[in-house]
Amino acid sequence: MNDFERFLNPERKPNIRFVLSEEFIGEDGKPLVWEMRQLSAAEGLEIERLNADRGDTEVLIALAASSLVVPDLKDQKLLETLSEKAKTTVLSPSQAAKAMLTMAELFKLMKVYHSFCKMGESVDELIAKAKN
Hints:
Layout: H1 3-8, E1 16-18, E2 34-36, H2 41-51, H3 56-66, E3 68-70, H4 76-86, H5 93-100, H6 103-116, H7 123-131
Antiparallel strand pairs: 1-2, 2-3
Helix pairs in contact: 2-3, 3-5, 3-6, 4-5
């Protein structure tokens, strides 16, 4: 494969699986495993555009919640059930995350997303990688 083809077909990292909290328990009595994927640039920019007036924390919550594969916070049945439980309308993944999670769990979700996407890398770190 030549470099042109490699730019068109990058090797993306696999989804990450993690336990967010010991409080979400499966039928087997073990903590439920959550799964997160990388968002495309188009998805991320759209989420950022929709949440731009809400501040950085809200943008990060929306990005992290939208990146979840398991549970799927876009699932209509989940959103309807959360709406009934919370006695308010839950329409988006970020609203679902806020309705489901404690503050500590929400911060952990944001931390997992931040780490998984390597959002903390500085420009200097990226340049050093390119030089090696």
